[in-house]
UniProtKB/TrEMBL annotation, chain A:
Protein name: ER membrane protein complex subunit 1
Residue ranges crossing the lipid bilayer per the database entry: 911-931
GO CC, alphabetical: EMC complex
Alphabetical UniProt keywords: Endoplasmic reticulum, Glycoprotein, Membrane, Signal, Transmembrane, Transmembrane helix
Boundaries of every ER membrane protein complex subunit 1 C-terminal domain copy: 715-940
Signal peptide (residue range): 1-18
Gene3D superfamilies listed in its UniProt record: YVTN repeat-like/Quinoprotein amine dehydrogenase
Membrane topology: Single-pass type I membrane protein
Record-annotated EMC1 first beta-propeller domain positions: 18-429
Description of how the protein assembles with itself and partners: Component of the ER membrane protein complex (EMC).
From TrEMBL, chain B:
Keywords: Endoplasmic reticulum, Membrane, Repeat, TPR repeat
Function, as annotated: Part of the endoplasmic reticulum membrane protein complex (EMC) that enables the energy-independent insertion into endoplasmic reticulum membranes of newly synthesized membrane proteins.
Family: Belongs to the EMC2 family.
Protein name: ER membrane protein complex subunit 2
Location of the protein in the cell: Endoplasmic reticulum membrane
Keyword Lyase found: no
Length: 943, 332
């Protein structure tokens, strides 16, 4: 009865829960990431002409275009340009312009530099973009305004188009019908040049340069460079373009012995010898040249070997078209990065090595500034990080006194701004693209649990001695604890402690402090402190991968605070200490637990193989599966979603308004299988019992757009899935749909169905006769939702008493919503108002459309990009569930689906409470003698 | 304040009274500190019930020992605390006035004061009782009896007043009225062994005084008296007065002519009539018991054994004298 009362009370709780304003930015944390910035698409630029402060613009390897404030490293704006056919990307901004132009795939887009709004976009139907340039030097008849954009499309016949800088309209196009492979376009003071590669009969590549008229696009000139002898692949071409006054073409010969440089517009090719030092083969040669139109025609060639790197600076004599070496920068061990920056016509080269930053002018080799580089902020467990690429901005005052700030990408994926040798900020861009994440307990909690385990398994005396010893050991913390006590009490009363971000790895009484171990697609692993604003505790390269590979390991918690990492594709098993990131020796039997990741300790494990679900006895690969599940003909299985292994259920029944009980069908072995028929556009959903292999429920939906996201979630006695209806389907409804189904033992209240009287029960054979399955009673309902859901998850709490929320990732609005369970209750009465009994249950009339209440958005003002996964974890507080979403961004928060009923809110005034107690005490002090006097008086009144 | 002041024995022996009153100057000096303003004085813990009980007892013992000055100071303190109009304080003031009255005239003045008060407030019980006491002291027992009867009319459950009335009647040799009054007391306090013993004494006296020539009635009275003493002993072990009376009545019964001690069994009805007199053997046994017990009490008291020293010396002497009388008889 008490339970009934509790449940009915719980149902009266308001359904809509918001992120409170004072909770926002305190309970949640967000790593808004871009991905690794690429050198050729990153630069400092004023957001609009005349702006004093510059922003760093970058188009990352994740195709996220972003503007970063160089002062604090915060993202000013971000746009995800992700496209399926993108291989290369470009980002350009004209000098003094308020737009940045990006090209990804076949799209060319211009964005407002200050706020990231789309200015225009152009799409080529013929082919992907091959190059993008801004026409800096305008021809006379064009009035001031946004500078035009030159785009090279790599179609069957390559097209060079000049797009209007204001609208993106094509002004003119030039089609190259020669059949040569397009390489690049160049816009310079000397006109527009189109560079293509002509494959000769012998396999060598001949560079062909076509000059175009800037205003009409007509071909004015054409010449070829005899490069076929030493140029065999596109990869050998180091550099095309730069310094619009004197664009150059640079490539190396086959053996990286000589650098060939051609000043575009001339036919002569200068050959510059590259001296190999210390006899080691040269790894890479890269060329850094200023991009500004009015800068001096100097460039720097960086040569990197396995052990050291150095650089040579060359000057171009424009009049005589001669290239001469000006000076060399000394050889420095290790790897380094160079950045070019221009101030007026002066060109400065910033050299960043692992331990110092130096600035030289292009004119002479004198070092203008030198700053020792302090260690980067994040401890890296792998080898010492070294700079990979950099962009920098030099402030020059009277020739020598200089300040330099460089945005440097380090080899450990940190993108840091180094200002005069100091790391001003650093962004953990290595964590962009997390493919797997898992919760881990703090080592302290784990060790206590271990200790208790020892005590519970020993004999009584030994356990007692162990406990006394443990308590004696704990005494050493007492003085410190006592010392901190006054400040803690004071902080409690002033209300400061709740706002203070939690740091360190100590456990807290609410269980909010947990670790999250993540694995990125680049083979990197890191741990975040979920209780400490998502601070990164450690980060390390775990698996060396090539650029194309994506790492998708499976993570499992192991004993002793360790995380087991298993990579099926590489047959790799690792055991990592969650708190420190140290590798632990792998236990051979831990490995076997991986083979069937979906079940864990269950009797039967299953996996998706060859388009069907196969069940095995755990730990051994039976030749004949225990059972097989094959979807209907021509259907392919999209996904299998098991019920979470740790899914506590507080009540086995649902109490109805008239105090009768609808018993939940609680089966720990539920598996939801979604399968699609690609040609018939149908979606089929199968609910399986993973032990017996019985099909408990099926549903089929026709007219489903099978190319869109279809996600599912299962918890307790309900499951849900969402899909998008095909535009061309015959169904009357369109859009995105969410189906919710609840399972009950029987349709009749107070009835437990066929299992009621059964004394024995077998999971393997749930029914007496084969095929006669005790199927649950399923109540399902479909809701129309306004946005596509790409990932779903369900909140988890410690005891499962708190009502649940369905968490859904909305990729279109870059957000995560927590949909209260009672909003999508399939038992909502359809076509009639609820009866009074149903009202007491909290049911409201069914309406087909579920609008996402703005209060449900867990990310409030934040935008979470590219979320691919969502994990939840219970905290020690029953009311609170921890959430972590990963993908491009990392976002974590905590939710209280039934309000935080077990913890005092921030608005609880402890001072007022204390004042009341004191006032009452003083009152009693004064009233007590008065009462005593009255008592004496009355005693003296009688007799 | 000493414990004996706060919680004195029911009847204060003169020595204790003297000791108590000798403490008076010290106590009064102690408590006459500077008085604080009203609200602050509340915070000091001096205003305990025990303080004022103590002052009252101190006042009484001072009056007893003639330390009128200290008594006056006690009274002033009580008046200051509870006010002039408090009935209990009024009665204490009257008691003080009576004690310091030098002659009969002064007493009469006090009496007139009482009359004045009672005219204004006839329900002032303490003053009404004081008035009875004053009348008794002024040797006007008949007026006192009338006043007491009036008081009992309005307050019939006042055991103290009934006992006082019994005393008053006894002084006037009105035995049956005295017995009635004591019976009223016993109705209110049925377990008061001293009242039972007192009843036995009065019954003994009355039967001796009224039935000296009628053996039957005398025996009836003595038996009744003996029963009362037995009851008092039953209620209180080693009750000297009870054993003394028991011995007195039983020896008297034994000395009666034996023929009269044979009652007609039919004439008695245990339900409605008087009880039959006990058999001779019973009386003898009782007499022996009483003698033995009295001897033990006297012996032990004389030896000063612990637990046997609470007896009043006069009573012990009387008991010894009674025992000696018996012994002389035997000697003869």
């Amino acid at each position: 009865m008490r339970l009934h009362a509790l449940l009915s009370l719980a149902s009266l709780l308001p359904s809509a829960l918001a992120v409170f304003a004072d909770d926002a930015y305190h309970v949640d944390y967000h790593h808004a990431l871009l991905g690794l910035p690429q050198q050729h698409t990153s630069f400092f630029q004023q957001p609009y002409a005349g702006s004093k402060a510059a922003l760093i613009y970058t188009l990352s390897d994740k195709l996220v275009l972003g503007a970063v404030n160089p002062k604090d490293g915060h993202i000013v704006w971000r746009q995800s340009l992700a496209s399926s056919d993108a291989i290369k990307s470009w980002l350009r901004a004209g000098q003094g312009q308020d737009t940045v132009v990006a090209a990804v795939g076949s799209h060319v887009t211009a964005w407002s530099a200050a706020d990231g709004r789309l200015v225009w976009s152009a799409e080529s139907l013929s082919g992907p973009v091959q190059d993008l340039e801004i026409i800096e030097i305008e021809d006379s008849e064009v009035s001031a305004g946004p500078k035009d954009v030159l785009v090279l499309f790599n179609a069957s016949t390559p097209v060079v188009s000049r797009l209007d800088g204001k609208t993106g309209q094509v002004k003119w196009s030039f089609e190259d019908e020669s059949g040569d492979a397009p390489l690049q376009v160049l816009a310079s003071g000397a006109g527009i040049h189109y560079v293509s590669l002509h494959t000769t009969l012998l396999g060598g590549l001949k560079i062909k340069v076509v000059s175009l008229d800037q205003s009409t696009g007509h071909k004015t000139d054409q010449y070829s460079l005899s490069s076929e002898s030493d140029l065999s692949s596109v990869d050998s071409i180091l550099f095309v373009g730069a310094n619009s006054a004197s664009p150059i073409l640079a490539w190396t010969d086959k053996f990286s012995r000589a650098l060939k440089v051609n000043i575009v517009g001339t036919k002569s090719v200068a050959s510059l010898d590259i001296e190999g030092k210390d006899g080691v083969g040269i790894d890479t040669i890269s060329l850094h040249a200023p991009l500004a139109t009015n800068s001096m025609p100097h460039f720097l060639v960086q040569i990197q070997t396995a052990q050291s790197h150095w650089a040579d600076v060359y000057h171009i004599d424009l009049k005589r078209s001669l290239i001469s070496k000006a000076y060399s920068l000394p050889r420095v061990a290790g790897k380094g990065a160079f950045a070019t920056s221009t101030v007026d016509a002066n060109v400065y080269f910033t050299r960043i090595t692992a331990d110092e930053v130096t600035v030289v002018s292009s004119v002479s080799h004198g070092i203008l500034g030198r700053w020792p580089l302090k260690a980067t902020a994040v401890p890296d467990l792998s080898d010492q990080p070294y700079p990979v690429s950099a962009v920098s901005e030099v402030v020059s005052r009277s020739g020598s006194a200089q300040a330099v700030r460089s945005a440097v990408l380090f080899s450990n994926g940190e993108w840091a701004l180094i200002r005069n040798g100091e790391v001003t900020w650093s962004r953990p861009e290595a964590l962009a693209g997390v493919t797997a994440a898992i919760w881990a307990e703090l080592p302290e909690t784990e060790s206590l649990a271990d200790q208790l385990e020892i005590e519970s398994h020993g004999n009584i005396l030994a356990a007692y001695i162990h406990r006394v010893k443990r308590h004696a050991g704990d005494l050493q913390y007492l003085p410190g604890w006592l010392q901190k006590l006054p400040s803690r009490i004071l902080a409690n009363f002033s209300g400061g402690s709740t706002r203070r971000p939690l740091d360190g790895l100590q456990k807290d009484s609410f269980g909010f402090r947990k670790l999250i171990v993540v694995a990125t697609e680049k083979g990197r692993m890191a741990a975040l402190n979920a209780g400490g604003s998502g601070k990164i505790l450690w980060s390390m390269d775990t698996v060396p991968l090539t650029a194309e590979e994506k790492w998708t390991p499976q993570l499992r918690t192991s004993s002793g605070g360790a995380i087991a990492v298993h990579d099926q594709a590489r047959g790799l098993s690792l055991l990592i200490d969650a708190a420190t990131g140290k590798l632990l020796p792998v236990d051979p039997h831990v490995n076997s637990a991986f083979r069937h990741p979906s079940t864990g300790a269950a009797v039967v494990s299953y996996s998706l193989a060859e388009g069907e679900v196969r069940a095995h006895t755990p730990g051994q690969e039976n030749p004949i599966p225990l059972w097989r599940f094959l979807p209907a003909t021509d259907e392919s299985i999209l996904d299998i979603t098991p019920r979470p292994a740790d899914d506590p259920v507080a009540s086995i029944g649902k109490v109805l308004g008239d105090r009768r009980v609808l018993y939940k069908y609680l089966n720990p072995n539920l598996v939801l299988v979604t399968a699609v028929h690609r040609t018939a556009s149908t979606l089929s959903v199968y609910l399986l019992d993973s032990t017996s292999g019985d099909v408990l429920y099926t549903a089929s939906h026709s007219g489903v757009d099978v190319t869109r996201k279809i996600t599912s979630a299962i918890s307790e006695n309900w499951f849900t899935y969402s899909y998008t209806l095909d535009v061309s389907s015959s169904s009357l409804s369109r859009g995105h749909q969410l189906v919710v189904a609840e399972l009950y033992e029987s349709a009749i209240p107070d009835d437990r169905g066929p299992l009621d009287t059964a004394a024995n029960y077998s999971s393997f054979q749930p029914a007496a006769a084969p095929g006669d399955v005790a199927k649950p009673h399923v109540v399902s309902q479909t809701f129309q939702i306004s946005e596509e859901i790409s990932k779903m998850s369900v909140t988890q709490t410690r005891q499962g008493i708190t009502s649940r929320q369905l968490l859904a990732v909305l990729p279109e609005s870059n957000s995560i919503v927590g949909i209260p369970r009672n909003v999508i209750d399939p038992r909502r009465p359809v076509g009639r108002d609820p009866t009074p009994a149903e009202v007491t249950e909290g049911l409201v009339r069914y309406s087909p459309v579920v609008d996402f209440d703005p209060k449900w958005y867990l990310n409030h003002k934040r935008e979470v990009f590219g979320i691919v996964g969502l994990i939840t974890s219970p905290s020690l507080l029953e009311s609170t569930s921890l959430i972590f979403a990963y993908g491009l961004d990392l976002f974590g928060t905590r939710v209280t689906p039934s309000f935080s009923f077990d913890v005092l809110g921030k608005d609880f005034n402890k001072l007022q409470m204390l004042a009341t107690v004191v006032a009452l005490f003083v009152g009693v002090m004064f009233v007590a003698p008065l009462v005593r006097r009255k008592q004496i008086n009355s005693r003296w009144q009688i007799t | 304040m000493a414990a004996e002041l706060i919680n004195p024995p029911p009847s204060v022996p003169p020595a204790l009274a003297l000791r108590m009153s000798q403490q008076a100057p010290r106590i009064l000096q102690q408590s006459s500190g500077p008085s604080l303003p009203y609200l602050l004085s509340l915070l000091t813990a001096s205003d305990a019930p025990e303080t004022w009980i103590g002052y009252e007892n101190l006042l009484l013992s001072c009056l007893r020992t003639g330390d009128d000055r200290s008594a006056r100071m006690c009274l002033e303190k009580l008046t200051q605390r509870f006010g002039e109009s408090n009935e209990r304080v009024m009665a204490l003031r009257g008691m003080y006035d009576e004690a310091v009255a030098e002659d009969y005239k002064a007493l009469e003045a006090v009496f007139r004061g009482y009359e004045e008060i009672l005219k204004q407030d006839p329900t002032n019980m303490p003053i009404r009782k004081r008035r009875v006491a004053l009348l008794k002291a002024m040797n006007r027992p008949i007026d006192a009896t009338t006043a007491l009867v009036g008081l009992l009319d309005s307050s019939p459950t006042d055991a103290e007043a009934w006992a006082e009335l019994a005393d008053l009647y006894l002084t006037q040799n009105l035995y049956s009225q005295a017995i009635f009054s004591l019976e009223e007391v016993l109705l209110i306090t049925p377990n008061a062994w001293n009242i039972h013993a007192r009843m036995g004494e009065i019954l003994y006296l009355s039967s001796l005084a009224t039935n000296s020539n009628n053996d039957g009635n005398l025996m009836q009275g003595l038996c009744e008296s003996m029963r009362r003493f037995c009851r008092s002993i039953e209620l209180c072990d080693n009750y000297l007065r009870g054993y003394y009376g028991l011995k007195l009545t039983t020896s008297r019964l034994l000395s009666l002519p034996s023929k009269t001690s044979k009652p007609a069994p039919a004439a008695t009805d245990p339900q409605f009539g008087d009880l039959a007199p006990p058999s001779l053997a019973t009386i003898e046994k009782l007499h022996e018991l009483a003698t033995a017990k009295l001897a033990e009490i006297v012996r032990r008291n004389a030896a000063g054994e612990s637990g046997w020293d609470g007896y009043e010396q006069a009573e012990v002497i009387a008991a010894r004298e009674l025992l000696d009388r018996d012994a002389q008889k035997v000697k003869r």
